[in-house]
Design goal:
tryptophan catabolism; Methane Monooxygenase Hydroxylase, Chain G, domain 1; 14 helices; mainly alpha; 61% helix; Trp_2_3_dOase; binds N'-Formylkynurenine; binds protoporphyrin IX containing FE; 263 residues; L-tryptophan 2,3-dioxygenase activity
């Protein structure tokens, strides 16, 4: 008789021994546990967001409006949660953070591969981010792959073409490994989408929500940084808050913002 597997339990299904055994503070400071847990929760949500956005890209490419909208709504709800999470970390004072900051050595958010993957899905094509990853690392390969795939906006253009909008051929056939250049012809198409005011226009609005949401995260992150470490340099080697401020307000989908002056 073959031996039966041990009965599935709450603990085994959720791999709790692994997850709950993965908090390893480097100091005895009370607040370091919060710092670790918050980051781990972020990385789990980043994983789920990547999962949803990959699904969204495939739904867009098949022209499936209802599923695209539902998936976008879910991604947006997750984004709200991750932005709101910053409130929890802001209960930590500058001196509490200073109590264990030195133990972080040169580690920093620069090394969050999933965050870079998310940026790549949103269209970022910037090889400078690779500086923080060893050449053959899995993380680097995943980011590189995301940069070689169509961005969300590329997939959305595919969606519009499937729905018979006159998306210019060169936009559909562009080299998706390069950064997207805003295009007036594409903006003319977006104006027609908005005039029709159907499912495609709803997707446009949700993409703007996504863009606004990621900028909100950047803004909240830099405010948290400013109040916690002031103008100190970052552990990752940047100037800190002033570097982070330069990344706020850079849109992922510039064409969707550009058309608003014409709506
Ligand atoms: C007290 C809390 C935090 C402080 C003081 C802080 C500080 C910083 C600083 C100074 C940088 C610039 C890199 C450097 O030179 O070190 C940075 C980058 C970054 N941090 Fe944080 N951070 C905090 C919390 C978080 C949290 C909770 C996350 C969530 C994952 C996060 C994700 C990131 C990411 C993704 C970057 C890269 C941003 C970019 O290059 O655009 N940080 N952080
Ligand atoms: N860069 C931060 C340290 C920090 O926040 C951090 C360190 C290790 C792992 C994740 C981090 N979070 C975001 O940067 C600092 O300069 O204080």
């Amino acid at each position: 008789m073959t031996e039966r597997n041990a009965a599935l339990t709450y603990e085994s299904y959720l791999a709790l021994p692994e997850i709950l055994g993965a908090q390893r503070p480097r100091s005895h400071e009370h607040d370091e546990m919060l710092f670790i847990v918050i980051h781990q929760v972020y990385e789990l949500w980043f994983k789920q967001l990547l999962h949803e956005l990959a699904h969204l890209r495939s739904r867009l490419e098949t022209g499936d409006t209802a599923h695209s909208i539902r998936t976008l709504r879910r991604a947006l709800t997750i984004l709200k949660v991750v932005v709101a999470q910053i409130d929890v970390l802001e209960t930590m004072t500058p001196s509490q953070f200073a109590g264990f900051r030195a133990r972080l050595d040169a580690a920093s958010g620069f090394e969050s591969a999933q965050f870079r993957e998310l940026e790549a899905v949103l269209g970022r094509r910037d090889r400078q981010v690779f500086e923080h990853y060893p050449p053959e690392s899995g993380a680097r390969q995943r980011i590189a792959e995301a940069m070689e795939n169509p961005s969300l906006f590329d997939s959305f253009l595919g969606y519009l073409a499937r729905h018979d909008y006159p998306v210019p051929e060169e936009a559909l056939r562009r080299d998706v490994r390069l950064p997207w250049e805003p295009s007036e012809e594409v903006q003319d198409v977006l104006l027609r989408v908005y005039a029709d005011d159907g499912g495609a226009a709803t997707i446009c609005e949700h993409l703007v929500d996504l863009d606004e949401g990621q900028q909100e995260w950047r803004y909240r992150h830099v405010m948290m940084v400013q109040r916690t470490i002031g103008d100190k340099q970052g552990t990752g080697g940047s100037s800190g808050a002033s570097y982070l401020r330069s990344t706020v307000g850079v849109p992922a989908f510039p064409d969707l913002w550009a058309v608003r002056s014409r709506l």
